[in-house]
Amino acid sequence: MSVMYLGQLVPLIIMAIALGMDAFSVGLGMGLQLLRLKRIFFIGITVGLFHIIMPFIGIVLGNFISTKLEDIAVLAGGLLLFTLGIHMVLQTFQAERKSPMKPIGIGLFLFAISVSLDSFSVGLSLGMSGVKTFIALLLFGGFSMALTWAGLLLGKRARGLLGVYSEMCGGIILCAFGLRIIFG
Description:
The chain is an all-alpha fold. It has helices at 3-30, 37-69, 71-91, 106-129, 133-158, 163-183. The two termini are 24 Å apart.
């Protein structure tokens, strides 16, 4: 494997984990509900698909923007990641966290959209940086699906002990990647 390929793959894996942390933390809370394994499987697949669709749309828009604005686009992408990370960290300090919605029908759609919105922003910034789209999408979808399953299954047992900390960790990682893009 070439060094250049590894140099792109490792940060993408770390970013995929950071993006999946949101789904993991929300899954912990949702796992407190009585969910069958079949429903947990379907929720994970749905979240994984949304973590492929949303960054794909972001990457396509980011590619378009970057061809038009070049240097400004790279700076904007880094700022977007950093801002998203700060937002995730600040959300962990909210006094009251809402109880999760039912993961059926429109509730499942809203859940999948809410935990994948940050991947749209990340996709937008990655599209501006010219990353390998197919690999990024597979990593984002796979890790978010696996972390959703882990959160739902652990939530059945753990009563939400890790939720706040996992979201904060994901936010810090996104901030770090945003700063890396901005400062090179």
